[in-house]
Amino acid sequence: MKNNFDYIIIGSGIAGLTTALTLGDSGSVAIFTKKNPSDSSTNLAQGGMAAMIGKGDQADWHIEDTMKSGDFHNKKEAVSFLVKNSKEALFWLKKQGVLFDAKPSLEAGHRLPRIFHTTDFTGKDIEKNLLKKISENKKISLFKNSLAIDLIVKNNICQGVFVLIEDNKIVPFFSKAIVLATGGSGQVYQWTTNPEVVTGDGLAMAIRAKAKVADLEFVQFHPTAFKGKSSPLFLLSERLRGEGAKLVDKDGKQFVNELLPRDIVARAVFEKQKTSEVYLTMAHLDKKEIKRKLPNIYKKLLTHGYYLTHDRIPVTPAAHYQCGGVVTDLDGKTSVKNLFAVGEVARTGVHGANRLASNSLLEGVVWGRRAGNNIKKIRNSKFEIRNKKFKYSKILIKLNKNNKKILNKIKSDIQKTMWEKVGIVRRKNEMLEALKIFKNYKIQLGKIKAKDGVSLQLIEASNLTEVALAITQAALNRPKSLGAHYLV
Ligand SMILES: Cc1cc2nc3c(=O)[nH]c(=O)nc-3n(C[C@H](O)[C@H](O)[C@H](O)COP(=O)(O)OP(=O)(O)OC[C@H]3O[C@@H](n4cnc5c(N)ncnc54)[C@H](O)[C@@H]3O)c2cc1C
Q1: pLDDT exceeding 90 applies to what percent of the chain?
Q2: Where's the FAD-dependent oxidoreductase 2 FAD-binding domain (predicted)?
Q3: Quick one: fold of 234-319?
Q4: Which of 37, 187, 219, 434 fits 421 for a cystine, CB–CB 3.0-4.6 Å?
Q5: 10 lines ligand 1 (CB under 6 A)
């Protein structure tokens, strides 16, 4: 198997695929993705993508709405870059075959309708079309079931990545540009809308490679996930509240303005849950219109026995979006040479202390395009693989049953501790307790690794621990509430 590519991309969500397609024919591209190519947050995005296309809207308004949502912790330069490139991003996706509805809709935090969607499963349509284009490009090789373990970095220059490939071998791959597009870290929490592949691997790898990270304390909790038994929790998107859905308690009483920013609504639901179940209802709205506008959500809830048109749907908040991440500039460059980051894993400065709904798909396209175009420029620069003699273990040592059990327990303990102690409402003493727990797990995982070697479960558990530690430390470093970081 060839282990030398012009460009390496880790992750096959909107950001990674956009970067790959932008690199296009300029060199050989390898995309490594953990499981199936469509296993991603992108594939689950329902609401849509924000775009400022004129027609009664203004760049300044989209910028202001984004900054307001981010509690003005955003980098204005990045927000402005996002908004000014949004029209081009929308048109680029259309060129890839995504059939957006002509009329945008309204979502919480946006002052006017500027959210473009296909049906109510916009992400799936985007993912499907981008993957089709990838499959048509002979320069791009997509490797599924290929888990990136660690970056190969020497003297602050990234030269490649170790990957656990399909037949259970760990192989180093080398390249002149490595792009992290691994998404967020929602699985570090017990309740999340993020798919199982989203375990913060890219962030953990970047931390180990000593890349600069920031704003990790700002984790956005979505106020309304369907409180069912499936994992991840099925999201009941902003769009429903945009269309007029109400949030009510067990007595049918409304207790919050549903169109307020996510963190405020999430906290209101969280508080209300202490005394009552919380439900979302659309029963007062036109039933035909609900079915027409939200056919997929309607069908999905039906598989759980609920009619969106008539029933009260039980809901809970859930970890949804990582606002911080690996620090990049407008070109997607990180603090490590030849290492780039795009999409949710990156901290571009767009989201500040809290993300405005529907800005993240947009960010994935805008930065994927920009990073791709920028990376092309290093195409002819002198590139040498500095050290082909990196050692790697060829055989993956199997875990014994006992360790599997231990690893599963560590994973679920981390998720529960994060939910209870570093979640929607935070207290300093509880976060200090959490930090202690995570430090102990890090030591325990190190011992398992030294004794038995690595495995997928061990890698994920180690990454979750790394990310849990980093989020908790960042939260402790910020003694006052701001945006999604809420202290009592
Ligand atoms: C339920 C849900 C609904 C959402 N709705 C919207 C919406 O309506 N509008 C909006 O703008 N945003 C929405 N978001 C957020 C948005 O979908 C994400 O922020 C965005 O899709 C992230 O794209 P990405 O390419 O950065 O990462 P992802 O789409 O998550 O892709 C990450 C990829 O990296 C791979 N990966 C991870 N670790 C490794 C590893 N170690 N090795 C190899 N591969 C790896 C994964 O398998 C995956 O392919 C939603 C998110 C969720 C979860």
Answers
A1: 81
A2: 6-361
A3: Flavocytochrome C3; Chain A, domain 1 (3.90.700)
A4: 434
A5: yes
Ligand 1, atom 10, lies closest to the CA of 358
Atom of ligand 1 nearest to the CA of 197: 47
Put simply, whether the predicted model's pTM sits higher than 0.85 gets the answer yes
Q: Which of 241, 262, 267, 347 is catalytic?
A: 262
Ligand 1 contacts CB of residue 261 (under 6 A): no
> Does the annotation mark 262 as catalytic?
yes
- Residue 186 · residue 196 · CB < 8 Å: no
- Closest atom, ligand 1, to C-alpha of 149: 41
β partners of residue 140:
29
Kindly provide the b/e burial profile for residues 336-373, where b requires at least 16 CB atoms within 10 angstroms of the residue's own CB.
bebbbbbbbbbbbbbbbbbbbbbbbbbbbbbbbbbbbe
Q: Is the peptide bond before 232 cis (omega within 30 degrees of 0)?
A: yes
Q: Mean per-residue pLDDT for 114-125?
A: 89
Atom of ligand 1 nearest to the CA of 234: 1
Cβ proximity of 189 and 311 under 8 Å: no
Q: Are 212 and 466 in contact (CB under 8 A)?
A: no
Tell me the domain boundaries of the chain: 7-216+323-376, 234-319, 401-477
User: Which is higher by pLDDT, 83 or 235?
Assistant: 83
Q: Counting atoms of ligand 1 from 1, which one is nearest the CA of 16?
A: 25
Residue 394 pLDDT grade (very low, low, confident, very high; cuts 50, 70, 90): very low
Query: How many helices (DSSP H) and strands (DSSP E) are in the chain?
Result: 14, 17
Cα separation, 209 vs 160, in Å, equals 12
Residue 219 sits at φ, ψ, to 5 deg, of -105, 125
Residue 56, helix vs strand vs coil: coil
d(CA 359, ligand 1 centre) in Å: 13
334 lines ligand 1 (CB under 6 A): no
Distances (CA, A) of 290 to 120, 240, 242, 285, 367: 11, 9, 12, 7, 34
**Cα–Cα distance measured from residue 84 to residue 102, given in angstroms and rounded to the nearest whole number:** 20
CA–CA separation, 76 vs 70, rounded Å?
11
Q: Do domains 7-216+323-376 and 234-319 have the same CATH topology?
A: no
- Going by alpha carbons, the residue nearest to atom 27 of ligand 1 is 183
- In this structure, what DSSP letter does residue 223 have? E
- Answer whether 368's CB lies under 8 Å from 88's CB: no
d(C-alpha 476, C-alpha 458), whole Å = 27
Architecture (CATH level 2) of domain 401-477? Up-down Bundle (1.20)
